Amino acid sequence: MQRMQISFTAKNDTAELTLSREAGEGSTYMDDIRIVEKTLNNFQEDGTFKQDFETVVQGLYPFVLSSAQGISDPGTHLSQLNEPYTQAGWNGRVIDDVISGEWSVKHHSKNTGIIYQTLPQNFRFEPGKVYNVEFDYQSGPDKAYAMVIGDGTNYTAPSEEQYLAEARGETKHVKMQVIGNGSGQTWIGLYQNASKSGSGAMGQTDFTLDNLVITEDKDAVAVTLSSTNLYKGETATIYGSGLDKIKWNSSDEKVAVVDKDANVVKALSAGHSTITATLPDGKEVVFEMNIIDDVVIDIPREEFSGISSSANTEQVSGEPAGSGVASAAADGNSSTYWHSNWSGGVSKENPAILTVDLGKEMKIGGFKFQQRPSANNGIVQQFKYEVLDSEGNVLETSDSITALVSEMQGGAWVTAKFKETRNAKAIKIYVEKGQGNFAAISEVAPIILHKVADTVSLEDVTMNIGGKVTLIPKHAENTVLKGIVWSSSDEKIVKVNQNGLLTAVNSGTAKVKITNAAGLMAEATVTVEKKKLDYTELEKTIKNSEKLDLSKYQDGAEKDAFINALKAAKDAYDKASTQIEIDNALSALKTAKGNLVEVETEEPGASKVDKSKLEKF
């Protein structure tokens, strides 16, 4: 769970505080609500957000701790001024713990990943709006920290140019631009690369931040994309302001092309393309598009339950329970991990080799492995692999692979795709470079690859007014649909949502079509007849059934049948295309409801009568 702060002014002795969320998928939990009297002035009258960390209620507002540090013993805190001991120059300290005032945010640890970040509930970057973000900082290491922009659970690891320069005993100022993504889940966060952080206990690895200011730039001409990694057939939405003043170019229009009218980039085929947006002042914003046409499909673990692992090096003691040993990489538990021996280093010339036996030959398209749970020693940075059959023959060998920076985090998954599907029995992973010159892997699992579908078909359907039917697109086996968009030629006759659910509105004929950005297309003729379906009694019975307290009825076949009948009735309400389906679902639910057996309860004060000694005459 994360902290959320809501500021308000109490105008009377009592007030009613309501916490709510918009409708949508997923669950929201709220707990440990505290009310604190505090004078805050973060949001200015002109909409500017300011935080100097002098009057923080709790935590690091608007930041929260993020994934790189885990949940125990984090190295980030509000640092309080205590001159001269907290400032640069004392006893070899190289940076100020406090930049201005009495408090600043300080990070004092070595991690790789997002250290802390904002949340939409603390500061919301509105979709499509452009913001200027400014802050002061001091940094012990050179180019070990960067302020990155993320969306939901996704972010792009910083480029070399984004890392912040060393600032020892001097305060530097950063001004960056942020464009709100359409999801409404945009955030900024401090990224640290532990391998660049150096060493030392007097601020050499530390980072201090203060005087955060976020301002909307209403006059900016700026642009960003919702994603630069797409499957063939998908689109990336263009966000920003002044978009009509921007000129676009694609280095390979067979791979990706810009549709200015729709404000999207279309992924046409697998490959790489550089999309360049030229602003009115001549500045270029470059997006490196990566388009893929194969989709990773996880294999259920029961299909490789005989998996085991061994290694040429392991740490049999000293690591947490269940960890250190090679077998931990195949135990199905992400909290345990294999770790190379503490006494030996890892290099290209002396790799740590983890051998994973799948237990049987399997047709697979690759594998994935999970980094150890925390971003400590052993995070795999470079590796290669071999694929072997049941007789030990090498089927495929890779070159050295460098993990993406975003994959060098605790718990991150790293995926390796084979050149072609292999009938594999074992996989050897050669770790050539790891954090601290060690190797550690939490889990290894085989995967299969499915291609993005190039063709698809839909079947015609006849419906009654008020009916609902879900169209299921048909496509080749071992293919996956991506970027599908549903549409109706006449929504006065039939409506369709983006899950393919049709709703018949009026009698007539309409075409329902699916398309994607790569040119895939299919359509079905939908005929809506005049007969109107009657859901009234079914809806009433469903509502009454949902009100039943099932704890008052005996467990067993009757209760199970009722639960299943209620589910089937709801499905019929959503998807039935004929009155017979509705009537059958209604009848089954009524029958199941009538068969429920109440739990026997004793009347208050009633005494039990022992009938065991009664004789039968």
Average residue pLDDT: 92
Q: Beta-sheet strand percentage?
A: 35-45%
Calculate Rg over CA atoms: 30 Å
Major pleated sheet = 9 strands, mixed
Number of strands: 37
The portion of residues assigned to helices is under 10%
The helix tally amounts to 3
Q: Which class best fits the helix and strand makeup? A: mainly beta
Kindly, what is the distance between the CA atoms of the first and last residues, rounded to a whole number of angstroms?
69 Å
Unreliable stretches covering 5 or more consecutive residues: none
What is the global morphology? globular
Account of the 3D structure:
With 617 residues, the chain is mainly beta. The strands form eight sheets. Strands 20, 21, 23, 24, 25, 26, 27, 29 and 32 form a nine-stranded mixed sheet that branches. Helix 1 runs parallel beside helix 3. The longest helix has 19 residues.
